[in-house]
Hints:
Distance between the termini: 35 Å
CATH class: Mainly Alpha
Radius of gyration: 13 Å
CATH superfamily: Tetratricopeptide repeat domain
Largest sheet: none
Number of strands: 0
Strand content: under 5%
Shape: flat
CATH architecture: Alpha Horseshoe
Order of helices and strands: HHHHHH
Number of helices: 6
CATH topology: Serine Threonine Protein Phosphatase 5, Tetratricopeptide repeat
Amino acid sequence: xxxxxxxxxxxxxxxxxxxxxxxxxxxxxxxxxxxxxxxxxxxxxxxxxxxxxxxxxxxxxxxxxxxxxxxxxxxxxxxxxxxxxxxxxxxxxxxxx
Length: 97
């Protein structure tokens, strides 16, 4: 029997899927991270990116409101949203932390 994936392994798997455009699968990994650590800022941020890519602006805004208290660096959160512009942008531009 193998051990459950660590939080970092789940996040990294989600990012790899996300970069390949497999948003539904990536979302599942990010949600698993949040189940283990509900205040994980990067998982909230990446879920917001998925919501933006799907055009789910209200969901993205709700995720941002959860992200701000979780972030270790409010400045990185502002850069993240400034780069995304609440629309499609490259994934590499959006991952700022």
